[in-house]
Amino acid sequence: MSKVALITGITGQDGSYLSELLLADGYEVHGIMRRASTLTTERIDHIFNPEDRTFIHYGDLTEGLDRIIYRIKPDIIFNLAAQSHVWVSFHQPVYTLMTNTVGVCSLLETIKQAEQTLGKQIRYYQASSSEMFGNTPTPETGYTEDSVFSPCSPYGAAKLASYWLTKTYRDGYNMFCSNGILFNHSSERRGYQFASRKITRAAARIALGFQDKIELGNLEAMRDEGHSRDYMRGVKLIMEHDKADDFVIATGVTNSIRQFGEKAFSHFNLDFYKYLQQSEVLKRPKEVPRLLGDSTKMRTVLGWEPEYNFDTLIEAMCDNDYKIEKKLGV
User: Fold this and answer.
1) Which of 49, 76, 87, 231 qualifies as a FRET site for 241, CA 20 to 30 Å off?
2) Distance CA 245, CA 239 (A)
3) 125 is annotated as an active-site residue
């Protein structure tokens, strides 16, 4: 009998890659998505079919999860749902806290009660973030699971509260609750509003003659950037480990937004600075200057290694966006 997995945030880049990995391993996969007037399932349309052990349910972190959990009786829950844009969190702090913290508390409480009612353990994964480290001085080899947290955005603060809630339910109720502290990760499926995908798409469109500039905020922010599929392989390993724990997933290499832009545009033999327009509006009220992760624990305990590096990530994203934009023709 297949294990049953439930994924919140199923329609995002992480949810789509995780779904593929779980299906390949024989899981029955259920996803939760919010109802919207426009379709948001393009990342998962190729895999979701009840005949192929895949199911979609409508709901969100604040309503309807108990009904879904009691019906499908999952063995494992991956909570990937969030208001995930740091810049937006400064403009919608209450919504960010309600979704990323209160929603997580509600989900954990539901799981606790469901375990008692259903008489089974439900493993829980919380998507934590490198933004929790904030302005803590970066160690030479990067932040580890034992580094001090000091978030400097509503997003980072909300994620930190959820991180501690996950540990509290693990320690207080002996539940299988694990945190994956993921550093920045992008892919060909990254949302267009995020800097990495905004850059690769603009470079492709400019190369095709469909666009003549790109507008960006802070170029000097340093980020440890990996590929979403690599990171979802790590998440799966975390939840298949024999005990609940917390793990940093990172490449151990940091580059600036400026370097990302230069490499993406050079992929098409373009001068990044010829098309760049900097915007004060796009800068955050408070910026995290540098994020670098140390995933030694992940590599030694679980045997995880990334397949992509900074260059191959950008190449894959650029080639994919060029193909998409050329097909669209506008």
Assistant:
1) 49
2) 9
3) no
pLDDT tens column, 54-110? 788 887 777 778 999 999 999 999 999 998 889 899 999 999 999 999 999 999 999
Q: Which of 19, 89, 128, 129 is catalytic?
A: 129
Q: Give me the number of domains the chain comprises.
A: 2
Statement to judge: residues 204 and 154 lie in one domain: no
Query: CA 117, CA 192: separation in Å to the nearest integer?
Result: 42
Task: Say which CATH number the domain at 258 has.
Answer: 3.90.25.10
Residue 155 annotated to the active site: yes
Torsion angles phi and psi, residue 249, rounded to 5: -115, 120
Say which of 155, 163, 169, 308 is annotated catalytic. Answer: 155
- Residue 302 CB contacts under 8 Å (≥ 6 apart), including other chains: 234, 237, 238, 241, 247
159 lies in some domain = yes
Q: Which domain holds residue 267?
A: 195-222+254-291+308-328
The one catalytic residue in 17, 115, 130, 131 is 131
